[in-house]
Amino acid sequence: MAADGEAARPDWVRVASESDLVSTLGVSVDGAPVALFRTEDGIYALDDICSHEYSRLSEGDVWGGEVYCQKHGSRFNLRTGAVTGLPATQPVRTWDVKVIAGEIWVARTPRAAVVT
Fold first, then answer.
1. Which string of b and e fits 23-57 if b means at least 16 CB within 10 Å?
2. Sign of the four-CA dihedral 44, 39, 72, 59
3. Can you give the pTM of this predicted structure?
4. What pLDDT score was predicted for residue 55?
5. Which of 23, 80, 101, 113 fits a disulfide with 91 by CB distance 3.0 to 4.6 angstroms?
6. Domain 21-97 sits in CATH 3.40.50.2300
7. By the 8 A CB rule, do 104 and 16 touch?
């Protein structure tokens, strides 16, 4: 987590106020759909589109550190984006997240997807 006084840098995008994120929220980072997830462990960000078939992960259910896609039940690890349940076979990318003075910032560049 960054210090409150840290200046916004061009490699981060402010996407929401922390109060906007109850459990899940779909946002955009330079046009890329990103899903935010709040858990007791922190805030995570993944690509918002399921790798199996188009469906927004921000509309899925979160249990035990995983998001369940609402369309066919694929599961993805919130920390790594790795597939934890079929029918998806390809992971989704993760995005670094930080909170500064109650605002949620997401890195402009996602991390590579984790293949297991």
1. ebbbbebeebebbbbbeeeebbbbbbbbbbeebbb
2. negative
3. 0.89
4. 96
5. 113
6. no
7. yes
